Amino acid sequence: GEGFFCHQCRALQPPDPTRDYFSLMDCNRSFRVNTTKLQHRFQQLQRLVHPDFFNQRSQTEKDFSEKHSTLVNEAYKTLLAPLSRGLYLVS
To answer: MF terms per GO, please (predicted)?
Structure first.
C-alpha cells in the first residue's frame, strides 16, 4: 500500500501533503524521466486509489480516493511533459 493504507485496518489514508510528485511517481528528482516507467507507475497507483474501487467503502475513504486520484493525475501530467516537468523542478 506504500503508505496509502492503514497497516492495521487497511483503510485508505489521506494524501501526504509533504510528498512531491517525483517521490509519488517513484522518479529521481531530475529533468530526465523514464516516461515508460512513469506511465507504469501511474497505472499502478490508479489501480490502488481510483474512486471506482471504493464504491463500497466509507465516504471518508471515497473522499481520500478522489484526492489521491487527482494528485496522481496531476503528478503524471506534470512529469510527463518536459516543459511542466522543468517548471515543477524549479518551483
So the answer is: ATPase activator activity; protein-folding chaperone binding
Q: What would the 3-class secondary structure string for the chain be?
A: CCCCECCCCCCECCCCCCCCHHHHCCCCCCCCCCHHHHHHHHHHHHHHHCHHHHCCCCHHHHHHHHHHHHHHHHHHHHHHCHHHHHHHHHC
pLDDT in tens, 11-49: 999 999 899 999 999 999 999 999 999 999 999 999 999
Distances (CA, A) of 75 to 11, 55, 91: 23, 24, 14
Number of domains in the chain: 1
- Provide the whole-model pTM: 0.92
Q: Which domain holds residue 60?
A: 21-90
**Within a domain: residue 4?**
no
